[in-house]
Design a protein that fits this description.
Blueprint: H1 17-28, E1 35-42, E2 49-54
Antiparallel strand pairs: 1-2
Length: about 80
Amino acid sequence: MSDDSSLADFGDEADDPDEASDIADDAAGTAVVTYQWGTETTCERCGEATSRLWRPDDDAGEPDTAMVCVDCKRW
């Protein structure tokens, strides 16, 4: 290719914009929050006030949105 090639010369794996969007959605997945800090809140396991929370272990039985303090987090 010459130095003055246009972007169209490179082509695209998905010429259909809808198909390209589907590919991007599949690759991105869903982000999962694992740590939270900031305002005072309470641990969902022991009820203690804290400003730092972590996601509990998967086998702990809490709901997917549960967050626990450093003392309740299994390391």
